[in-house]
Every structure is written in structure tokens, then in C-alpha cells.
Amino acid sequence: MSLLSIQNLKLSIHGTPILKGVSLDVAQGEIVAITGESGSGKSLTAFSVMQLLPRGTGTTGSIQLDGTELLNASDAAMCDLRGNDIGMVFQEPMTALNPLMTIGDQVMETILLHTSATRDEARIKAEETLTRVGLSPEKFKLSRFPHELSGGQRQRVVIAMAIALRPRLLIADEPTTALDVTTQAQILDLLKDLVQDFGMGLLMITHDLAVVSDMADRIVVMRHGDVVETGETSTLFSNMQHDYTRALFAASSHEVDLPDNTRPDDALLVVKDAVRDYPKPRTQLFAPREYTRAVNGISFTLKKGERIGLVGESGCGKSTLTRAILGLEPLQGGSITAFGEEVAPDMPAALRAGLQVVFQDPYGSFNPRHKVARIVTEPFHLLPDPPKGKDRQNRISEALIAVGLRPSDADKYIHAFSGGQRQRIAIARALIIRPELIIFDEAVSALDVSIRAQILDLIAALTQSHDLSYLFISHDLSVVRTITDRVLVMKDGQIVEDGPTEHVFSHPKHPYTASLIAAAPTLPDVKGPINVPT
Amino acid sequence: MKSRNLIIGGLLTAIFLTEALISFVWTPFDVTQMNISSKLKTPNGTNWLGTDHFGRDIFSMIMVGARTSIAVALVAVSIGMFIGVPLGLAAAARQGSLLDEVIMRGNDLVFAFPSLVIAILITAVFGPGAVNAIIAIGIFNIPVFARLTRGAALPLWQREFIMAARVAGKGSSRISLEHILPNVTNLLIVQGTIQFSLGILAEAGLSYVGLGAQPPLPSWGRMLADAQTMVSFAPHLALIPGGAIILTVLGLNLMGDGLRDLLDPRIRVDRT
Questions:
Q1: Between residues 166 and 195 of chain B, which touch chain A (CB distance below 8 Å)?
Q2: What domains lie within chain B, and their CATH numbers?
Q3: What is the pLDDT of residues A225-275, one digit of tens each?
């Protein structure tokens, strides 16, 4: 008999059906992964188990934990179960912890709430649990606060809170999405270990097929509130039944058809010994300011027609470097020249017009109060004589068509578009003044795999039609591998490796590059061609 | 019924606003005309809300008083907005700079003084009167709006659409006007209604101590002050202007509350 059994779960919010009959089982000591793109209902399925649903939600069907019906259980009964029998690990370790409570208190809270342990007993138990997740009290005192820990360490605290009472079922909602690859690998190992040790069931929600294939015993693929396919990991990957699973798999390992770079000649962008310091907050009122060196003597050259990738983990200084290249912040040493002229915050508009950028967040990079036409024409501000009237209309239409949108979209507000469409609009905004160099700052990181594949194809196509050179900044190695010719690996403000992309990936020289590549979860090789329905 | 506050608040505000507007063209009686023979009348058919100790019609005085209160509060809030909002925008645009420090520490300085006491000082130095009351109340509205604007603008400056505008070569003043200001307007409108009600209270307070609008121009605050000695035998003299102040302030606060619910989608809760 399985530990968790969900039968024909239907869920609607204000009458809109979200889940349309989901059934799945989790056995003791088993890792089951629910995967699917955003809007597939995977998170709501998990939250239904916890009965933590938004107001106005109606559910039918059955969710049983060891034979106890959870659906429509009383709130008091659920409070007993949550934390005690079911633990939960959240996606964002930065917000899942109370910033005003020490890590010890947060782990103890669960224990004190559900058992009759005294504070001292609870403290001992919390110490044990934190040691188990790799934060031994010798190095990480219980009196530490969350802001004193890194993202990975915080996620360990969140896991400690979830497993403190050895729940029978652990639910992990995208537990590693917010983490760097090397940290992700460690957290996944820890979770796998805990499941084995405690014999608990793990229901894991993730959009990342590569993570799934490494971790899960069984996989549930969801789409639009339906389970489209479910099976043992090994058999499911080698024998995909459903078209959608195949499409998802193909999109995850999508490789673009990048046209050859024909003219690597003149240097477009030359970064020479660039140094960028940030002032730290003053510790005393009149103490001299101390500085953090975010970018420490970086040099590279981007030639016309080159497509360079810049990879590194969070905090390595890649965003700081981006802002310096865009001329938004001044350098403290070295120089950056684009098209032969010095880049600086007060650089002339004509120089700025040659450098454009596409940001990561498809929701945050537009003013919600402006229409698309106004958004994409913003860079016209850089032209001495911006196009007007019909000419302006034509330019807008041209840019929108180039990114696969319709000219009529110009009159809509931004909220009418999906994440992928918004990213197309962001590219249109960068393209409209025909820059020579575009910087893609994590431009596909927030997108679902199938949308990401489309945007990557679009970028590859644009390199051909628009003669683009670009700097592609990303933490995602598989994306960088397919979309660039050359790659720079950055660590602690310095470039540790620089070379042709394929070569760096197949023969990394620097140990850091090697560890990055080793830590990145990979998709299993699937024999035979994958037929992607079109 | 999600905007019940808005409806009630708007209704109350509208009543006093129309009252004030009508008073420009018509009042039941002339407010400057005394009629000692019919003094201290309780509400009746001729004098709807009764008469005061000089026999003036209280209903007419409330109407004209509304005009004074609303005019003083409106101009004072406008002064606060027109000076405070640009200061706040400038401070946010240059966060951490000397300009930011100067603006914000200046605000702290103004905030550090008890506002009504300083208002009394100003009117005492420059002489009592509606204009000086406006200036005094207006000055204390500046830091409220400056702080609010800066606080709301700071997180916006970290957003990527602001970065995109900077990449498009727009300067900080232009970004402040085109991108920041429209995104903080909701907040300013809500704070405006609250400051408006505080302005009415402040004007009433100043008039009460005789430093607001000067006789013969009626004012709610002075009507209260005049009624003070007669509360025991003519309580309606105090109750009516007092009630007018309470209802107007309540109306404006409810309206501010309702507007906030309406304009801020983040706290728009479903009450079904």
C-alpha cells in the first residue's frame, strides 16, 4: 500500500478548472517527481496535499496519506499533520526563512509545536537535524541568522525544518531552482540521502527534466492540469509514449542551428583590465569606507560577428560587468571600448545606440503603464532625429515582425502577453535601432523549456538576418553551449577560462570549469531519434 | 461590496464639497448679518441648524466654513505635493548621494518639530489669517510626500524596465517623470486624501486658537471655539461644527482607504 495516494483529484479556482483528474502514488522511500511547464498544475497538486490552497478553491477526489483522507480534513487535523507527518521544502530559500529568527529557533519551532519536548530537548534535536543536513553546530551556531548564510546553506536550514520530525512524506517544490549548479548538486544529493536514510516518500516538483532524470524513481508529466504520462524514470525516458513528453524532452536538449560566423575581423568590444568596486556599508560613522571588488581585472575582446557566452555562478560579478559594459556604472580601473570609443556613463548617444540589452525578467523589464509601441521605441531617444509618423510605424512593425509578433500588437498593453511573447518584445526593443552588439543578460533563464527553445531559435535566426554580435550571459551551461561560439568562464570577478565553446565544454582546462560542467545535471541519452510533433 | 468604503467616503466628501461650492452663489442667510433678536435658536424651520449667539444662521456658516476648510486643506496639500514629490523623486534618483542626504535630512528636520506648534509660531510671527495657515500646513506636508515618493521610487529604480530606459540613454530626470512618477501616482492619490483630512483638522485647530481664517469669515474651528462657553445651555453650537469636521475627515479617510483597495491590485482581496 502506498504512502500517499491521490485519486482523480479535481481542483477549480472560482469555477475555473485547474486540475482535471490527477492520480498519482508515492510509496515509502520512493522519489516521485512531478514535472511540466508553468501552468501545468504541478505546484497546486503539491499544495493540495498540504491543503494550503488559495481562497475560492474547490476540490473533489481523494488524497490519502497512509489511509487517512486529507481532502476536506479539518484545519486542526491538517495543522497536526503539517510539519509532523508531511514536511515541505520551498523554492526560494531567501524568503522561506523568517529573517528575524535564528536558524536554531526556526528548526526548534516545528519540534516544540508538535511534541511535548522541552526547549532543551528541542535544541538538542535541532542540533542533530542541522548536523544531518550538513550544518554542524561547531561551524554553524544555532544563534546565526538567515542573512549570515549563503543560499545553499539556507536551503539546508529549510530542509532541516522540514525533516526535524522525520515526516513520512516530504514535498519539495522546485527545491533547487533558485540555486547555482554546484549547490544544486549538493542539495539534490542531500535529499536523495535523506530519503534513503529515513525511508520517507519524496514528492518533488520541478520543471527541469535533467534534475528529474538524476533524482526520481518515477516521473509524472503534467500538462494543463492533466497527467499525460507516468512511469519509472528509466523506462519513461527510453520509451516516451506521449507526444508532449517527447516535445518537452526535445526542448530541454534543444540545439539551435547557429549560422557560421563568417567575418571575425574588427574588434567591436574591447574590455581591458576592467575593475569595478562597490562601497560596503560603513561599519562606524566616520570610518573610511571599505570596498568590495566585484570585477577584478577582466580583459577580453569581442570581434564583429562573434557570439560570446559568459558563464558563472551568482555573485561572480557577471551582472556588474554587464552594467559596466552598458555604460551604466563607472569603472575604477582599466577601460572598456566599444567601436573604438570609450564606454562610460556619460558616453554619447550614438555610442549607446550601438549597445543594447535584453534582460532576464519578462515581467519586470517593461513599464506596465505603457503600450508596446511606446516600449519598443524607447531607444529612439538615442537618435538625433528619431523617425516620426509613418516611418516610425514602419520601424515598429518591422521590429515586431522580426521577432515573430504582429504589427497590430503595438497597440496592446504589456499584460496582454505571455512570458515568451514579452521576451520577444524585449528583443524587438533592443533591435529597433539596429545595434551592432546586443547583450543578453540571462535572457532565457525565466522561460519554460519549450518557450526557451523558441527564443533561442529566434536569436539564432536573427544573427543571420540582422548581422548580430552578442554577449550571452547565463548560468545555464547547456544554453550557452548551443548559442555561442566562444565562452568565458567567470569566478570571483575574474575570467578563469576563455576559449571556443565546444572545446571548453569537452576539454575544460580550469578545475572550476570542470566542476561546473560536472555539477550540471544532464539528460540521459535517448536511443534513436526523438520525433517531435510540429 | 468591495468598495463600500469608497462609496460612503465619496458620498460624505461630495456632500461637503457641493455645500462649499453652493455657498459661493447662495446661502440661506447672509453669514455676516447678525440678528440678536433670534439668537441661540435651536434647529427649526427657518434656521435649519439653529442660530449662534449673534443670531447668525449656523447652516449658512457651516456652508461657508466648508469652503474655508476645503480651500485651506487643498492648497496646503498641493504645496506639499508640488514640492515634496519632486524632492522625493530627486532623492531616489540620486540615492546615497549628497543631494539625497540633504533632502532627507532636511525632511527629518521638518518632521522633528511638532507641526501644530510651528504652525502657531508661523502665524504668530506673520500674523493670523487663512494664507499663513495654508503656508504653515503646507510646509509640513512636504516631508510626508517627499518620504513617501522616495520610498516608493527606490524599489522601482532596481527594476529592469528602468535599466532598459537607462540603456536607451534617458537621463534620471526624464526617467523619473516618464517611468517612476506614473508608477507611484496611486500611492500619492491615497496619501493625498489622508493629508487632505489632516489639513482640515489642522485648519480647524488653528482657527480654534484664533490663528486661522479671521472674522467675519466663518470657520469650523472658530465656531467651536466660540461655542465653548455656551456648551452648557446651547450644545448644538459645538455639536454641529464638530460633527461637520468629524464627518468630513471620516469621509476623506474612508475614501482614501477605498481608493487604496481599488488602486493597489496586491491587496485587492476577494470578499465573496
A1: 166-170, 178-179, 182-183
A2: 4-16+60-261 (1.10.3720.10)
A3: 889 999 888 888 888 888 888 888 888 888 887 777 666 678 889 999 999
